Amino acid sequence: MDIHDSDSVRHPSAGDLTHDQRLRVQTLHEAGLTYEQIHKQLDLTRQVQYAITYLVTPNTRKGRPSTLEQDEVDLII
Q1: Domain presence at residue 77
Q2: What angle do CA 15, 18, 21 make, to 5 degrees?
Q3: In a domain, 29, yes or no
Q4: Domain presence at residue 42
Q5: Distance between CA atoms of 74 and 66, rounded to whole angstroms?
Q6: Biased composition, Basic and acidic residues: where in the chain (predicted)?
Q7: Structural domains of the chain, count
């Protein structure tokens, strides 16, 4: 059965998983559940695969680059 069957729920912009959600996914996978079973139980999308593959604690985002040059910042301070 494919995750993208017509009876499955569509998640247009699912967003990132929280630390607890990632931990729950990894725990269920270690208990022997497949991606499909975890997907159905937790109502998550492809995030299941990423949560199993990558770390429980996601990396912090880098943010928007500064529009000021370092010498301009020094001038303000």
Answers
A1: no
A2: 105
A3: yes
A4: yes
A5: 13
A6: 1-10
A7: 1
